[in-house]
Recover the amino acids of this structure.
């Protein structure tokens, strides 16, 4: 028996093609010996044939386990500051124990970039794996007309559409903020998602689901009326139900869940009912976590409660993965769509991006470098910190790699496979990162970055390894370095 076990262990190390050849030769040889030998030896042959059958069934079982595909869960926050979470900023007053838990169970990413510093564009870049200069949606969708218009070109292929072409097709659901167009043909259930509960716009009232005076909550392509339900909880509940239902399915079909929360996006007067105060909204329990009343008037304290409510919702999603028994087989990625806004607006621009400079809608680090975490138990080291730079378009390539799907060959993708960075500690495959939004522009190459706020301005140069806050402009001291990065930027522009 010990010899048999040793053979099985050696057998496990063989490639499947070698296993098949071994099984065939093994069984045929056994039958030949049975025919050549007398009956006194046939019992030995029976043992050999029996062992061959055990090996065959062992191979089938291992093969089935080997092709079990991971579920994929991508969670995004909305305008979360790089320094808002305690796991990034120990001085933060915000309570976020579940995101702390996520960071401890996986990897905290300190050099992850969103491909654009604004909501609409960043989401289009994530879902297409391409930057705005390729997919064409390089602006924030304006108002009702913009958000309910075509938005992202219908020729663009999104992550769920790619996952549908995988050898084992994924079940797909989206729950939250869409913000890339809601005209016919542009809606989630027309672009690869089987299920959708969420809003078309970039910012709606958390309780009454109003955007610009229009009711803006939908299930599929139809309006969903759930007045009084807190949007963060509504989206988390929908995702949890999807995860539970799909994980219990007897088909064993893997699933992809895209959970783009609208929190902690700032409140806007145009989204309120007549007489409704314009202030940060959170459920009573989130205020209670700070020992304050839901009537608290301090905007900073109210903002903290909004993030704590987001954290609690994410915690319930994590618990649902555990309860469904699928946490270990789920690749989970969390990040903010862009940095917190720092435009000087009282009561609104509250998020903290420390130690980064500036914030959303700019190409300073505070607009582009965002809080992000990844968890895949047994694959991504728990409690690790990864400083290698990569960005949101990489997630489409990760989804293709995880599912075994092929990305279309008729277009250029700006993403590269990030899984070696996350699971093996590999170096980033990116030579440089190109950014532009409105008049702002930047390029990072290695530790160096050039940035400017207007095309008429000269480039500023920063060494991010030594000056993360972009305080010391080195352009006049190192003109050759500026020229090197300008050349890299010109190469990007030629590829568009």
């Amino acid at each position: 028996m010990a010899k048999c076990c040793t053979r099985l262990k050696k057998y496990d190390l063989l490639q499947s093609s070698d296993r098949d050849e071994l099984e065939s030769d093994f069984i045929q040889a056994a039958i030949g010996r049975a025919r050549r030998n007398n009956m006194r030896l046939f019992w030995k042959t029976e043992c050999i044939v029996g062992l061959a059958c055990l090996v065959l069934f062992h191979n089938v079982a291992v093969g089935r386990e080997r092709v079990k595909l991971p579920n994929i869960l991508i969670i995004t926050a909305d305008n979360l500051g790089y320094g808002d979470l305690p796991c990034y900023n120990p001085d933060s007053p915000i309570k976020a124990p579940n995101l702390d838990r996520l960071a401890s169970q996986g990897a905290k990413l300190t050099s992850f970039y969103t491909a654009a510093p604004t909501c609409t564009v960043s989401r289009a870049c994530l879902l297409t794996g391409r930057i705005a200069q390729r997919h064409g949606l390089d602006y924030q969708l304006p108002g009702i007309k913009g958000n309910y218009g075509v938005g992202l070109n219908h020729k663009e292929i999104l992550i769920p559409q790619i996952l549908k072409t995988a050898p084992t097709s994924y079940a797909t659901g989206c729950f939250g903020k869409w913000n890339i167009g809601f005209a016919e043909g542009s809606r989630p259930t027309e672009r690869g998602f089987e299920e959708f509960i969420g809003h078309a716009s970039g910012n709606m009232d958390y309780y009454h689901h109003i955007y610009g005076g229009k009711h803006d909550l939908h299930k599929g392509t139809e309006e969903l009326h759930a007045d009084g339900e807190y949007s963060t909880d509504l989206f988390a509940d929908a995702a949890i139900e999807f995860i539970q239902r799909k994980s219990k399915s007897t088909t064993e079909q893997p699933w992809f869940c895209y959970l783009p929360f609208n929190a902690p996006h700032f409140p806007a007067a145009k989204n309120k009912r007549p007489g409704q105060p314009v202030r940060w909204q959170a459920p009573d329990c989130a205020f209670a976590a700070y020992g304050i009343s839901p009537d608290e008037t301090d905007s900073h304290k109210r903002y903290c409660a909004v993030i704590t409510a987001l954290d609690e919702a994410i915690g319930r999603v994590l618990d649902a993965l555990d309860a469904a028994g699928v946490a270990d087989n789920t690749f989970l990625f969390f990040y903010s769509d862009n940095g917190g806004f720092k435009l000087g607006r009282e009561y609104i621009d509250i998020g903290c991006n420390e130690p980064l400079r500036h914030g959303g809608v700019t190409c300073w680090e505070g607009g582009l470098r965002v809080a992000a975490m990844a968890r895949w138990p047994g694959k991504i080291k728990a409690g690790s910190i990864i400083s290698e730079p990569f960005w949101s378009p990489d997630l489409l390539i990760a989804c293709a790699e995880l599912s075994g799907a092929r990305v279309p060959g008729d277009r250029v993708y700006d993403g590269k496979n990030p899984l070696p960075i996350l699971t093996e500690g590999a170096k980033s495959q990116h030579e440089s990162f190109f950014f532009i939004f409105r008049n702002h522009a930047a390029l990072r190459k290695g530790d160096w970055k050039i940035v400017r706020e207007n095309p008429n301005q000269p480039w500023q140069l920063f060494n991010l390894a030594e000056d993360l806050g972009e305080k010391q402009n080195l352009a006049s001291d190192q003109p050759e370095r500026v020229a090197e990065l300008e050349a890299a930027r010109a190469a990007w522009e030629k590829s568009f």
